[in-house]
Amino acid sequence: MPLTLPPLSLYVHLPWCVAKCPYCDFNSHALTGDLPEQAYVEALMADLELDLPRVWGRTVHSVFFGGGTPSLFSARAIGQIIDGVSARLKLTPGAEITMEANPGTVEHDRFEAYRAAGVNRISLGIQTFDDAKLQTLGRIHDGGQARAAINAIKDAGFENFNLDLMWALPGQTVEQAVTDVETAISFDPPHISHYQLTIEPNTIFAARPPTLPGEETVWTMQDACGERLAGAGYQNYEISAWAKPNRACRHNLNYWRFGDYLGIGAGAAGKITLPAENSVLRTRRKKIPHSWMAAAEDGSFIAEQAPVAAEDIAFEYMLNRTRLAEPIAVAEFASITGLGIEALEPGLARAIETGLLEHRDIVGDATPTYANDRVGEVAPTYSDAGAKGNFLIRTERGARFLNDLQVLFLSEPER
Q: How far apart are CA 384 and CA 27, in angstroms?
C-alpha cells in the first residue's frame, strides 16, 4: 500500500544554555564564551536548504525552537530565522511557532520583542516553584523569578503558552507536587506539561543518583495532580501533557501522530516520508555545535541518515501514537505506514487480551484521516471530526502501563 504524506513540521535546535542541569540528557551545552549568534543563524539556513528537495511543495504547519535555552538568542536572531524559513518553505497561515524559554535570565524582558518577531507560543521551563527543589535540580532561577516570567509572558500579549512542571522530585511529597500544580493553574496557562523526573544515562544524576520518592508515593502523586488538573478544566490529551480545550500543542501532536518533521541545528532529529521510495527516512545532525557549524563549509550537517526498517514501522507508529488519548483510526495506520492491521499482530491481540487496548467499531459522520498533507493547521482528530470505522482505543490501564503496551509492538517482543 502506498504511503500518504502526513503533515510537516520544523524543529530548530538552539543548543546553548546558561548551565547544564544534572537531570538533562538533551543535546545542550553550557555557554562558556560569547554566543555565536549570527554564525549559527546562517548555518541554520544552509542546513535547512539541504532538506528542501525532499519536501518541495509541502506546507509547514508548526515551528518549534528547542534547546538548550533558545531565548538566549536575541529576538532579532529569532526573527531572522523565522523570515529565513518563510522565504524557503510555505508556512500555513497562523502556523504555531513555539519558543522554549527559561526564567532566571534576562530573556523575559524581551518577550514583547519575540512576539513581534513572529513567535506566537512560549514554553516556559518552570519545573517547580519550590526554591529548595529548584536548587536540587540545578536550575538557575527561583520561584519568584518563575512567577515574574509567567506574568511577563502574559503582559507581552501571549495568549498561548505552556508551563513545564516536573514531579517525583528528590524528597518531594504528594502535597508539594500538588502545590506546584495549583500554583501553575493559578496563572491560567492554556497548556501544562507535567512529567515525571526519571534518571537518564550519561547525566550527573545518573552518576550521583538522588533519592527519589517510592513507587507508591509516585502513583499517589500522579493521581492527585491529575485530579487537580482535570478539575481545573485541563484535558490529559497526551501522557504527560494537559491542555484547555483546543489548546493542545500542534507541533507535539504532529510528532505523536507519526507526522513528518524537518530537524535542523546541532543534534536535531528529523523524519521525512518519501512516497516515491515507499520509505520513511530518519535523519540526525552532528551533535557538537561547533562541528555542526563548521559543516556549513561543505553541507556535511548530517551525522546519521537511514530509512526506518520495514519491520520497525508498526512499532514506531504505535510507540508514538499510543502516547495520545485519542483513538487510533485503523485507516490512518494503513495510510501513514502503508501496512495493514495484520502488521500489528501478535502485539495487538496481546494488548486487547491484557486490557491495554480495545478494538471498536464506531459509527458517525466522518473518518479522521490524513489527506495528502492538505489538513489545514492541524490534522483532523477523532474528537473534532466525529468518527466512523475501526478504532484502537487506549484504555485507562493502557495509559497507566504505557511502556508495557508499547513493547508489545516490537518486531520480536519479549514475552
A: 36
Rounded Cα–Cα distance for residues 354 and 94 (Å):
43
Residue type, 181: V
DSSP string, 235-255: EEEETTEEE-TT-S-HHHHHH
Cell numbers at 85, concatenated? 524559513
Write the pLDDT tens digit of every residue in 187-213. 999 999 999 998 888 878 878 888 899
> How long a stretch of residues is the chain?
415
Burial of 147 (0-12, 13-18, 19+ CB in 10 A): middle
What are the structural domain ranges in the chain?
8-254, 311-407
CA gap 377, 379 in Å, rounded: 7
User: Do 209 and 199 form a contact (C-beta atoms < 8 A)?
Assistant: yes
Burial of 213-232, coded b for 16+ CB within 10 Å and e otherwise, reads beeeebeebbebbeebbeeb
pTM score, two decimals? 0.91
Per residue in 229-254, pLDDT (tens digit) is 999 999 999 999 999 999 999 999 99
CB 272 within 8 A of CB 54: yes
Q: Considering the domain 311-407, what is its CATH architecture?
A: Orthogonal Bundle (1.10)
**C-alpha span between 254 and 9 (Å, rounded):** 7
Q: Is the dihedral of CA 239, 287, 282, 368 positive or negative?
A: positive
Question: Residues 143-163: pLDDT tens digits?
Answer: 999 999 999 999 999 999 999
As a three-state string, the secondary structure of 57-98 is CCEEEEEEEEECCHHHCCHHHHHHHHHHHHHHCEEEEEEEEE
Same fold, 8-254 and 311-407: no
Which pLDDT belongs to residue 365? 42
* CB-based contact 121:99 (threshold 8 Å): yes
Q: Nearest 5 degrees, angle CA 7-CA 13-CA 18?
A: 150
Residue pLDDT, tens place only, 313-357? 999 999 999 999 999 999 889 989 989 889 999 999 999 999 999
CATH C-level class of 8-254: alpha beta
